[in-house]
Amino acid sequence: MTKSLSKYLSQGYERGVTQERKADRWWDCIVGRKNWKTGEPPLINGWIPYLGKALLFRKDAFKFLLDQQKKLGDIFTVHIAGRYITFIMDPFQYVYVIRNSKQLEFHEFADKMASKTFDYPALSNVKFPDLKENLHRIYQYLQGKPLEIISDHMMKNLQDIFEWKCSQATDWETEKMYKFCCSVMFEASFVTLYGRVPAADGRKVISEIRDKFIKFDASFPYLAANIPIELLGTTKKVRKELIHHFLLQNMTKWLGGSKVVQARQDIFEKYELLGDYDKAAHHFAFLWASVGNTIPATFWAMYYLLRHPEALAAVRDEIDHLLQSTGQKRGPTYNIHLTREQLDNLVYLESALNESLRMCSSSMNIRISQEDFVLKLEGDQEVSLRKGDWIALYPQILHMDPEVYEDPKEYKFDRYIENGKKKTTFYKAGRKLKYFLMPFGSGISMCPGRFLAMNEMKMFLFLLLAHFDVELGENKAVRLDNSRMGLGILLPDTDIAFRYKLRSLRN
Ligand code: HEM
Question: Beta-carbon neighbour count of residue 294 at 10 Å?
């Protein structure tokens, strides 16, 4: 057994457990659970020591889970890389997992994974009392009035970039779509959150950070799978360089950053035992959270719109109508301002965006059982869980359920509209669902940046369609790359060319 594997396994054992129990768990991790207990869900061990079903799960988690569901029903436990994960497949049971945040914990797991991936000391370390709670409190800056302020800044920064793009696109201009979304969203998000880099080559500095970010992000699924960073080529070096950009001496030079980042900085300063590098690593982690999913989600929203002319026409019509009715002119030199209500009322744009999120998101909502206990479920059902077991919801199954969404593989831009208004009632087997669209997670692990993310993507599409005629430049299908299944928004398996040209102001 490799050193890193044995260390990883030993981390799973909590203090105070008897030697006998430790031996039992050791056996469980390596060979698979030998004893099934009454009340526990059906167990799929797999025959490969330690890995269990990891390879099949990693190859295509969606298919694997559907196959197991057909065989074993809506609740089952799978042995995956030394862990026992109980999947709850029935969306009507989700609520029983989501609301039980006492016995089913999330933060400890997230802390372990994030601190390792982004190279900062765990928040739960006794050296940093209340750091986790303090950082969570700051998420208030991504809601309410502060959300409006940060959204306005994002709109302004997006417009600056689009204005620059406009000056280049008086005739048809061709670019790769993912690259385009990445460059626009990364720069606008960076400037909005962290501020403008004032040097003459400020834009270049941001694009250097972006290029390193793309390299790091390519290794993200491996890091999330607990593969040691030393085995991932230059990733460790790239991560270190990225983190160095966020050292205080660099960040203090950046102008006009956001309240949320400033507040995080103020909190870090209160912790003397948090080193300069550690603080910078936290800032880098926040950057990753803010663009890692938003960039691919923006790509899919744009790609599906361009693939479906009727969707593109309806959304553009809605945008033009809003501009007209509010007396705003489009064109590179005019500043467009959108209030929160106006953004909220773009029902076609929102529906199209939700539809692409339904199709491209694949996040697994994980909780960890804090004790041996019986989880009560709907209809007198119950399931016995052991301390340390993982419980997982896998909303991609819900998103692609033909009982909930007719023709789930088809993009229907107006799926989330009913009688001209937002549609929020979806049914399965004749029963209304509480949860029907979950790209941003659930309960205690719900994304704090979800409102900003939706605004950012709406604003990007708004400006793109207000300013440009846009069309696909290649006739090829782009598919989901499954290597991030369970980790958030899936990336496209290839990039695709598109063309854009400044729209005539007369139309
Ligand atoms: C389409 C865009 C986005 C998607 C799909 C998304 C999705 C998610 C999901 C599913 C989680 C929970 C992860 C888990 O369960 O382990 C999460 C966490 C998080 N997201 Fe987002 N996110 C998006 C954009 C953003 C943005 C724009 C920000 C900030 C500006 C942000 C900040 C965060 C943070 C800080 C966390 C960790 C929260 C914690 O400490 O528990 N996200 N996101």
Answer: 22
pLDDT, one tens digit per residue, over 300-343 is: 999 999 999 999 999 999 999 999 999 988 777 778 999 999 99
Same domain, 225 and 292: yes
Whether 433 and 291 map to the same domain: the answer is: yes
Q: Is 166 annotated as a binding residue?
A: no
Q: Based on the domain organization, do 74 and 211 belong to the same domain?
A: no
Annotated ligand binding at 100? The verdict is: no
Whether residues 262 and 158 fall in one domain = yes
Any idea what the CATH number is for the domain that residue 423 is in?
1.10.630.10
pLDDT at 450 over 90: yes
Coil/strand/helix, residue 62: helix
In a domain, 465, yes or no: yes
Give the per-residue pLDDT at 1: 34
- Residue 387 structural domain: 3-116+365-395
Residue 441 Cβ inside 6 Å of ligand 1? The answer reads yes
Core vs surface per residue 96-119: b (16+ CB within 10 A) or e? bbbebeebbbbbeebbbebbebbb
Q: Are residues 65 and 12 in the same domain?
A: yes
- Partners of 432 in beta bridges: 427
Ligand 1 centroid to residue 210 C-alpha, Å? 19
Ligand 1 proximity of 46 Cβ (cutoff 6 Å): no
What is the Cβ-side half-sphere exposure of residue 477, based on CA atoms within 13 angstroms?
3
Instruction: Kindly state if the Cβ of 365 falls inside 6 Å of ligand 1.
Output: yes
Name which residue leads in pLDDT, 294 or 49: 294
Q: What is the pLDDT of residue 163?
A: 87
How many structural domains comprise the chain? 2
Distance CA 447, CA 439 (A): 9
What is the pTM for the complete model shown?
0.92
Q: Is residue 507 part of a domain?
A: no
Give the pLDDT confidence score for residue 36 in this predicted structure: 66
